[in-house]
Every structure is written in C-alpha cells, then in structure tokens.
Amino acid sequence: MAASNEIMTLNMGPQHPSTHGVLRLVVELDGEVIQKITPHIGYLHRGIEKLSEHRTYHQTIPLTDRMDYLAPMSNNLGYVLAVEKLLGIEIPERAQAVRVIMTELTRLKSHLVWIACHALDIGAMTVFLYAFREREKVMDIYERVSGARMTSNYFRVGGLSRELPPGFEKDVQEVIDTFPGHFDTYEGLLTQNTIWKQRTIGNGVISAEDAIDWGITGPALRGSGVDTDARRDFPYSGYEKYQFAVPTGKNCDTYDRYKVRLIELRESVKIIDQALKSLKPGPILADAPQVCYPDKESVYNSIEGLIHHFKIASEGFPVPEGEVYQPLEAPKGELGYYIVSDGGNRPYRMRVRPPSFVNLGAIEKMAKGSMLADLVAIIGTLDIVLGEIDR
Amino acid sequence: MAENNRAVVKLKERFADAVLECKEFRGEITVTVRKEKILEVLKTLRDDLGFNFLTDLTAVDYLGSEPRFMVVYHLHSIAGKERIRVKAPVTEEACHIDSATALWNSANWLEREAFDLFGITFVNHPNLVRILLTDDWVGYPLRKDYPLQGPDREPYKGRLS
C-alpha cells in the first residue's frame, strides 16, 4: 500500500469557529503534518477603497471603523491623521490626548479579544470569560463617548466629534486601577500553565529575517525580536510625550508573542494613565474653519453658523493636491493610510495598508511543517480580523 | 529638501537615467523611477540603504493621463526609522511590471491584490491569481472607468449630486 505518502486535502472554514471570521484554508496534509496551506479570502470584501473615492472626506470616517471592527478607533485615527497631514493642520492638545486615551483603550479592547479567543481555541475557557468581562468595561466607555459600542465614528478631521461625557475621567481611572490586576489573573491562568506552554512554546516559529521578509508587523514582528513601533519611531498624536516600553520576544514563537502582547496591555494602561493626567480643558477642534464643523451653539443661533455647517456637511472641503502615507501602530500591526488628493473634496485614491492582510500572508510560511492542531494556535497568534483583510 | 536626502542622492548617482522625479511633500520623499529599473532600484534601497521592509505595494489609476497607472511601493527602514515611497509608471498598453516577490515575500499577496483590483500584471509572480474577488470576476474594480455599482447596473448618481 502506498497510503503512507498520500496527501490529503482538507478544507477548513469559511464557517469554522477558530478561523476568527470567514477565512477559508485549504490544507494539504501528510498524516497530520501540514505540507501546504492555501488561504482563500475576500468573503467580506465591501470595496471600501472604491467607495471612499465617491464620498467626501468626512463621509469616509464611518467606513473606516467597519474594517478592523475590534479596533474601530485606531482605524478612525489613521484616516483622520492622513487627511490632517494632507491639509497640514494642527490639532489642539486636548483632542490629541483624548485620541491617545481612546486608541489605547482600543488596544486593550482588541488585545482582550485576542487573548480570549486565542485561549479558547487552545482550550482555556476561563480566560475567555474573564477577558470578555473586562472588554465590556471598555465597550461601556466607548458607548458613553461615541454613542456606539463598536462603530464609533468618533474622531473628525481636525479633532473630535463631541466633548467627552461627564464622568469620563472616573470611568477611565477605574480601568487604570483595575486592569493590571485582571492581567495578573490571565497570566496566573496561562503563563505557567502546562497545557498552554505545550501548545504555544515552539509553535509558529518565524525568525526575524523571515518576519521582515513576509511583511509581518505589530506584536507578531516584535515577538520575533524586531524592535519597532510606529508610536515611538514615527510619533503621531503626541505619542512622543509619553513614556512606554516596546517589548520584544526572543524565541519567535507563539509563547513569546503572547508575552509581548501582555506587556503591551500593561504599557497601554501606563500610556492611558499619563494621557489622562495631562488632559486639560480646551478646544477639541482645530482652528481651521474651512475644515471643521462650527460649534452647535452657533449652528442653532446664527445664520452664518448654519450655512457653515451645511456647506461642510453637504460639499465637504477641498484638500490640497498631494499624497501622504500615514503609518499607525494599530493593535494588530502597522495600519497605513495612503491618500492621494487631486485637490477636490473627495480622495482621488485611498489605500489602506491592512496589518492583518499582510500578516495572514505569512501563514504559508509559519504553518508549513507543523501539525494541523497547531494551525489553530497560529491563526490565534496572528490575531487577524477578516473585516480588515477583505475591506 | 528631497535633493539632499541620502537615499535620493545615491539613487540619482546610480540610476541617473532611470530616476524620473524626486519630490518631498509633508516630509515624505517620493522617488519616481522607470519601471524597467524598478527591481534594481528596490534592491539598492533594500541592500545598500537599509530600507529592509516592504510596507505596502499598491497602484493608482490616473485615467486620462499618460502613463495611466502608477505602482506605488512604500519602504521602511526599521533601523534607520525612515520611510520612502517609490513609484513606477505603467502604461495601459504595456500593463505589466516586474514582480517584487524576488526581493520580498510580502509582495506576493500585495501584488495579487493590485492585480485583482487594477489588472496590472506582475511578471515572474509565482501565483498571480485574484485574491479578494472570485476567479470568474470580469473587470478591475479600482480602475476609474469601473462604475461604482458594477458594470451591469444603473450608474451611480452619487450622494453629492
């Protein structure tokens, strides 16, 4: 019998609980060892890049938080930063600090889903329940601030859409005070857990050279020991004012990536703490009347304010001709917005550089030669979200 | 200014006839080169100038101008904390360019996406098939002459009209 070297082709997904969305993988197996893996994506393709060419600059913001729906405000921020860079406008300090607080809360939110699902996939149900409980706290803040739990649409070109709700400082302070203890709980459940260690140590190994070659970014790249972080190397939104460490791993495996993300959670809390302390009253929109909405007081009480509001809402604003690329350290890696403007009120071309898309491309390299059961851990450690991959 | 940038000086020196334009806008350097030399330029940037990371690869359709397409590469020097953008014009008649997969594996999926949505062929790509759309899709949606609603439906009148 020649059955010993027969290759079996197995289909995994698109409906599969551990593919984290509608990801389909065609796996060629020799016994239980993966010989080749072919991802099929595009089930969620909505043509966001095409759509944005037909909308004014402000109308694209709500599309962006539908990409990485686990980290909506990071997507909002990348987009408005790119438009602001094209316009060359200065953002007031308060708006910058609020943006930092909200995007770091977003990182907590996104990493909590990562640890929850990753642990659940490998068999640790308790962490899933705990992490989702904590995530709900962040969701509540989201809801109070932006009115929505996920599709936030909170930032505006030039600043924020509205002032923070009363009690915001107290809510965030509660996160700062309680979350490190919760992280201790997760670590207590996982870091020295024998099953966890057996499933993650030596799993999905990718060297620093390979990780760079395959374009991996974010915690997955830092897990392979490459010291890079867009917040520190290309500061935006006032990140240069905050002190935080950029963790890196050594062994390039799933366990190191897990440790990197846990340190990132703690560093995020430190950044939120610093930003909250620096938060002072002040304007939340830039002094750029051609771009920013007027305050509601003048919209309701003066004809000039009403016309101003109407003009910006209906025809938008022109943006100088040129092209910019705005990198941003999103929870999943480097999120980039490349916008080409022809001087009109709509982007001539908007390109999103999605971290999950490029990271998933490396799965061919990472999964080759590992066992089928380990594939689930590799998908988990890449921390992908299909809304962003397919756009 | 762009002319004083280390990478630009080096590229101009080595590829005097291939560099078409150097520009700086909002602190970002853009170098436009002839597409025949794109791999050599990228290789020089990667090996000699430290731009070891291919962040992004995409295309822009300038319908109505010649050449029609621009393939855009974003490179990142992790150690130098620098970024550079390289562009290469591609005409509609000769809608192909050498594949950067010879230099970076990350170009694989990015080029497939550009092929899928713009119809630009990447020569020597190991597996140039559609990635986001289905294999039997007709047309290239991100081209400017592709209607927003799709080819066989009423044209989109726009939210702004």
Describe this structure in words.
The complex is a heterodimer of chains A (391) and B (161). Chain A contains 17 helices and eight strands. Chain A is α+β, with helices and mostly antiparallel strands and 391 residues long. In chain A, the strands form three sheets. Chain A has a three-stranded antiparallel beta sheet. In chain A, a hairpin with a 2-residue loop joins β4 and β5. Chain A has a single domain, classed as Cytochrome-c3 Hydrogenase, chain B (Orthogonal Bundle). Chain A starts with 7 loop residues before the first strand and ends with a helix. In chain B, the strands form two sheets. In chain B, strands 1-2-5-4-3 form a five-stranded mixed beta sheet. By secondary structure, chain B is α/β, with parallel strands linked by helices. The mean pLDDT of chain B is 86. Chain B is globular, with a radius of gyration of 17 Å. Chain B has a domain of 104 residues: NADH:ubiquinone oxidoreductase Nqo5 subunit (Beta Polymerase, domain 2, 2-Layer Sandwich). The longest helix of chain B has 12 residues. The chains are: A alpha+beta (391), B alpha/beta (161). Chains A and B meet through α1, β6, β7, β8 and α14 of A and β3, β4 and α3 of B.
Brief summary:
The complex is a heterodimer of chains A (391) and B (161). By secondary structure, chain A is an alpha+beta fold. Chain A contains 17 helices and 8 strands.
